[in-house]
Design a protein that fits this description.
- The chain is of the alpha+beta class.
- It folds into five domains: 5-138, Resolvase, N-terminal catalytic domain (Rossmann fold); 168-309, Hect, E3 ligase catalytic domain fold; 324-378, no CATH class; 402-468; 474-605, no CATH class.
- It has helices spanning 5-23, 49-56, 70-73, 77-89, 126-157, 190-202, 207-216, 246-253, 282-289, 367-378, 385-433, 437-467, 471-483, 485-490, 495-503, 512-517, 524-535, 552-570, 577-585, 592-605; strands at 64-67, 94-97, 107-108, 121-122, 168-175, 178-185, 224-227, 235-239, 261-262, 272-273, 293-298, 301-306, 339-344, 350-356, 363-366, 540-541, 544-545.
- The chain has a three-stranded antiparallel beta sheet.
- Helix 4 crosses helix 5 (126-157), helix 6 (190-202) packs antiparallel against helix 7 and helix 17 packs across helix 18.
- The longest helix has 49 residues, at 385-433.
- 22% of the residues are buried.
Length: 606
């Protein structure tokens, strides 16, 4: 503000006019130079050297070089200013500033004797000029200290101060520290990077296949402008806009900023969790990097390890995959969920274990021993083949009833849509026969109402048609769950899903002692299986499936387990195991089994 190139140009013209009046000569400005770079570098990088080249040409006949002030000519300090001034003086050019700090007169200390030497002639304002040049250099230091210092503080607090990396865009938000900049997902680019991590995390594709898929959805590198080295305002070329390569993708995958963790040099080697979420979670980042780079959360701080990470380091996560069963197996003394950690032995090794000491003698069981006990117990858990077949038949019957209902609704909707089309056609024919504007307007209003009704009915019809999914797919998944229970209990790569499936086997969560002795209270599903083996009856009435009263909860649990199997197969993270389990266990949903068959599978698969 008030110091633009145009403002400075007007000040220089005014100063040239004043000087011309003083020396009684007409001064004409032959050329203006605009400097956009810093003038604080070495001599060969000083922007004002462009003007010096112009002054060297004797045909230009330059006498004065006007600058607004010394710090606009150079910010290199007194030494740099002295060198530049002497270089211009060699070609008979004198510096002139707007404020009069640079004097136009010289004094000869031997003038009264009629002599003159190089050392006897000097400028009375030379010392003042040197001080002004040093002040300009100090101002650069002060400006950079304030600006860079503030940026370093904000970076260490988790904010952003640099241009946004690909996949992000800078966004200003109101914070307790004022208006600060964070990174937000780019509306176009973000999907490319999320896709990269998701495909790498799955581990089923090669890097080349991942690159091909990301390029297929439109990836192009961000465009950049290349500027002339001598004139930063001049654009000489552009670069970018090219497809993704394997090497570039690997660099992106290893960049922790996409997990919301900053590692730039201002952090002194200490990674900082940013004030904004990453494009992917830390767990996804770790799995995508396959052990080469691992981010470990420790409360509000994070650590980054390269290469294999000691398992005990991961204990600081809130939900540690090393101890997935601590919520589903109880302490044999106080019947509270077990705790888990890795203690350090004298040898320096860490020994992960489940433990508890809440007001009683310390109980501890190594992780390997507990997981072996779980696997041994689950070897004896299975469904009777005839129970699986009968359950499949009941489910099929309930689904067919729902399908008939949906089909009836779809048929009626189609009939109404055909009727609306006929009505609209008839009304349009009537308009052709009318001439009274009022009557035509009334008929047009009727047509508009029918069009609105038509649009609404089409939406309802499409929704109903989507519900008519292939029943055989659902039956296959149901049967797969019943026949491959052990695979679903231990086959997922996610230990939390395995543990959640294990917890469903029980009506009341077991203690470790009960798991060891086999004195367990299993879930009603297995009680229903046993009762079926005894009575060989599960009835279906005209109103729907009616299991024995004391087995209804078991049937609900069966449907729940079936729904979980679909979640495992489809890896649906939005399915909340714990909340759903509490709904079933509450006993409030007496007909929830029928509701699940009629609605829940569709919602999961869609």
């Amino acid at each position: 503000m008030g110091d633009s190139h145009e403002d400075q140009k007007q000040q220089l013209l005014r100063r040239a006019e004043q000087l011309g009046l003083t020396i009684n000569r007409n001064i004409t400005i032959s050329k203006f130079f605009e400097f956009t770079e810093s003038a604080s570098g070495e001599l060969d990088r000083q922007p004002i050297l462009k003007a010096l080249e112009h002054c060297k040409n004797p045909h230009n006949k330059i006498s004065y070089a006007f600058i607004k002030s010394i710090d606009r000519g150079t910010r290199g300090g007194a030494t740099m200013y002295g060198l530049l001034k002497s270089q211009f003086a060699k070609y008979g050019v004198q510096f002139i500033d707007v404020y009069g700090v640079i004097g136009t007169q010289t004094v000869n200390t031997l003038d009264h004797l009629g002599l003159k030497y190089n050392w006897s002639e000097y400028s009375p304002t030379w010392v003042t000029e040197m001080l002004e040049a040093e002040r300009g250099k100090s101002e650069v230091r002060d400006i950079l200290t304030r600006m860079i210092g503030a940026e370093v503080r904000y970076v260490r607090m988790g904010y952003r101060v640099r241009p946004a990396p690909p996949g992000y865009q800078n966004e200003k938000i109101e914070t307790t520290h004022g208006m600060r900049v964070i990174l937000a997902p780019h509306p176009v680019e973000a999907q490319w990077f999320i896709k990269m991590f998701e495909l790498r995390e799955q581990g089923t594709l090669t890097d080349l296949q991942i690159v091909e898929q990301v390029n297929a959805i439109g990836y192009k590198s961000r465009m950049r402008k290349l500027h002339d080295k001598t004139d930063k305002q001049k654009i000489i070329d552009k670069m970018g806009g090219v497809p993704l390569t394997i090497k570039q993708m690997q660099r992106y995958i290893q960049n922790s900023i996409y997990a919301g963790v900053n590692t730039e040099k201002w952090l002194d080697g200490e990674p900082t969790k940013c004030k904004f979420p990453g494009l992917v979670s830390i767990d996804t980042f770790n799995r995508a990097n396959r052990g080469k780079i691992t981010i470990v959360e420790d409360g509000d701080t994070v650590k980054i390890y390269r290469g294999k990470v000691d398992p005990w380091r991961l204990r600081k996560q809130k939900e540690n995959p090393l101890y997935p069963y601590k919520q589903y197996i109880l302490c044999p003394t106080c019947r509270n969920p077990l705790l888990a950690s890795a203690s350090k032995g004298k040898s320096g090794k860490h020994f992960p274990a489940y433990h508890c000491s809440r007001g009683h003698k310390y109980f501890r069981i190594p992780v390997d021993a507990l997981e072996t006990r779980v696997e041994t117990f689950m070897e004896h858990v299975d469904f009777d083949e005839s129970f699986v077949k009968r359950f499949r038949d009941i489910f099929l019957g309930e689904w067919n009833k729902r399908e008939h209902q949906v089909s009836d609704v779809t048929v009626k909707l189609n009939e109404r849509l055909i009727s609306i089309e006929h009505e609209i056609h008839e009304l349009k024919d009537k308009i052709k026969m009318l001439s009274l504007p009022t009557t035509i307007k009334l008929i047009e209003d009727d047509i508009e109402k029918l069009e609105h009704e038509k649009v609404s009915l089409v939406g309802v019809r499409e929704k109903k048609e989507k519900e008519q999914i292939d029943i055989q797919i659902l039956i296959n998944y149901t049967q797969y769950f019943m026949e491959h229970l052990k695979d679903l209990l231990f086959g997922s790569t996610n230990p939390f899903q395995n543990a959640a499936m294990f917890g469903l086997v029980f009506e009341d969560l077991p203690t470790y002692t009960e798991l060891e002795n086999g004195t367990l209270n299993l879930a009603p599903l297995f009680e229903l299986n046993d009762k079926y083996n005894t009575s060989k009856t599960l009835s279906v009435s005209p109103g729907g499936f009616e299991p024995p009263t004391n087995s209804l909860k078991g049937y609900c649990s069966a449907v729940e387990l079936w729904a979980r199997s679909i979640c495992l197969i489809y890896s649906l993270p939005r399915y909340d195991f714990n909340s759903f389990s509490r709904l079933i266990a509450s006993g409030r949903l007496l007909n929830f089994s029928v509701y699940l068959i009629a609605h829940f599978p569709f919602r999961l698969l869609v």
